[in-house]
Amino acid sequence: MTTNTESKNDQEVVITLRNMNKWYGQFHVLKNINLEVKRGERIVICGPSGSGKSTMIRCINRLEEHQEGDIVVDGVTLTDDLKNIGVIRREVGMVFQHFNLFPHLTVLENCTLAPMWVRKMPKKEAEEIAMKFLGRVKIPDQANKYPGQLSGGQQQRVAIARSLCMNPRVMLFDEPTSALDPEMIKEVLDVMVELADEGMTMLCVTHEMGFAKKVADRVIFMDAGEVVEENEPHEFFNNPQQDRTKLFLSQIL
Ligand code: ADP
Ligand code: MG
Hints:
six-stranded mixed beta sheet, 253 residues, 10 strands
């Protein structure tokens, strides 16, 4: 896999964070974040627990609100009045650590729910699309089971398929493999690598550094609510500049 940040330089920007700040009450959780993600870029975000990675990802799809600065997603500026929330939810797919599937719905129903209710797609078409993506994540045979009947790795692949059914322009991943047993991590990472290879714009919070080396165009290191360092993966891992980055890498590698 080559890093192709250069060829993406003149491409359309899909996500912009400009001088973005967020507080939880008095606690300044995100400090002046600047980030630009171009179409087709794969970005890995890492950093110690509590550094603000989830909060940043959640601000991008409006699960959390920021207080200062701008967030622009696919040309839509996220504002206080939540007018744009529908657009963002349609365009941005999100995969969480704990899958967040609906337990009382089958795998297929989990996948068809949003296309039918948000995109007003006829059931038959939604089911065809769902089966296509369940095939892509290699579990079409599980379509009529309930999430509780599947392994963690299978549930996470359902969660990815469910997001893809909405035809998102960007996929956000928040530690998608950290709740999985080791033998299931690879089956989820393989699906993510395939997505990356197909050109999906991806922002992934993960500590799977093998994944970062393989697919990331850029790795971003956060600590205490700040972007401390960012670089293409080879430089990031072999030549970290900041002491905090060096310390973090020495702990996880
Ligand atoms: P990370 O994903 O990097 O582990 P988080 O974004 O989850 O970090 O959390 C960043 C900081 O914000 C932590 O100190 C956490 O305790 C705090 N925090 C997260 N969510 C909330 C919340 N809803 N209310 C108050 N503080 C929060
Ligand atoms: Mg987190």
